[in-house]
Backbone:
């Protein structure tokens, strides 16, 4: 029995270090394994240091098309460098169509798209005495991106948080710009006049950057290079029906006027023809004399101008009698 105890103690001395090594290895796998990040050609990422027992702090920016291996517990947050579209329509866009009121108090609805770029500059800057080594992108992430979880997913897609963020920081200023610009035009100008519609669209574009900056705290422009495409705004159906009636009435009036003008032109042309014919007749009378013209006219129309007269030997008496 003493030998069995010795053997068990020997095995314990062998297996205990092995168990300790396994526990340490498991701990390393859970808490010490390195973090990784991989950016696509249209992405840039922010790298934040922060292990299991340390606070999070900004480290550096990760350029597009880059794969990195960083410390355990570090965080990586990717954002798009390519153009972003904010679509507002009745289909499956980022927002619903916007409504606005025109100068003559008619509510109209418009669909369209706003294009822009996220400011992904990583050059160090200072705001209100605070230095941001990661520049505008770090400031955006810490002020807005983290709040809405707006950074891209691990699959490189734009997240639901990104779309929610756009509805607030792009959608609301865009709605305001459309409404303000629309108050300078009547509904008929925007609905029927492409020049006025283009002016209105440009007015929206001119106002949008300032309104967006105001929405995002205004100390730096997080969004830039805006472009706007607005569809033709639509008035209520009752207004469109009335416009159709007006257009039909105008078309009918124009058709009646055109018909009257055509008849007048035809009458004037007929008068000219008759004048020319009269001049031609007068010229023949001048040459042939009135009697000669009449005789020639009868001949031209298959008539015999030389009919018997009452001065001939034949009269209207009884057959076989000679006139007295």
Residues:
């Amino acid at each position: 029995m003493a030998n069995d105890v010795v053997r068990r103690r020997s095995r314990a001395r062998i297996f205990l270090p092995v168990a300790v090594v396994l526990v340490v290895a498991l701990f390393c796998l859970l808490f010490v394994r390195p973090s990784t990040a991989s950016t696509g050609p249209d992405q840039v990422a922010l790298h934040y240091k922060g292990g299991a027992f340390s606070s999070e702090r900004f480290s550096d920016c990760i350029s597009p098309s880059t794969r990195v291996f960083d410390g355990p517990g570090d965080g990586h947050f990717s954002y798009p460098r390519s153009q972003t579209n904010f679509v507002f329509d009745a289909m499956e866009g980022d927002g619903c169509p916007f409504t606005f009121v025109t100068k003559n108090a008619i509510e109209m609805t418009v669909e369209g798209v706003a294009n822009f770029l996220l400011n992904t500059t990583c050059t160090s800057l200072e705001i209100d005495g605070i230095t941001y080594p990661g520049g505008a992108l770090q400031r955006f992430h810490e002020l807005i991106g983290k709040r809405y979880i707006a950074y891209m997913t691990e699959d490189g897609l734009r997240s639901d948080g990104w779309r929610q963020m756009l509805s607030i920081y792009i959608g609301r200023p865009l709605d305001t710009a459309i409404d303000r610009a629309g108050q300078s035009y009547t509904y008929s100008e925007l609905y029927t006049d492409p020049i006025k519609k283009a002016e209105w669209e440009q007015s929206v574009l001119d106002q949008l950057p300032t309104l967006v900056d105001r929405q995002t705290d205004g100390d730096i422009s997080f969004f830039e290079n805006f472009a706007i495409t607005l569809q033709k705004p639509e008035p209520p159906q009752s207004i469109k029906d009335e416009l159709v009636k007006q257009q039909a009435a105008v078309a009918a009036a124009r058709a009646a006027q055109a018909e009257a003008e055509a008849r007048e032109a035809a009458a004037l042309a007929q008068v000219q023809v008759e004048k020319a014919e009269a001049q031609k007749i007068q010229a023949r009378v001048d040459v042939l004399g009135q009697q000669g013209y009449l005789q020639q006219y009868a001949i031209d129309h298959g008539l015999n101008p030389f009919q018997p007269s009452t001065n001939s030997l034949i009269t209207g008496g009884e057959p076989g009698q000679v006139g007295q």
About this structure: The mean pLDDT is 84.
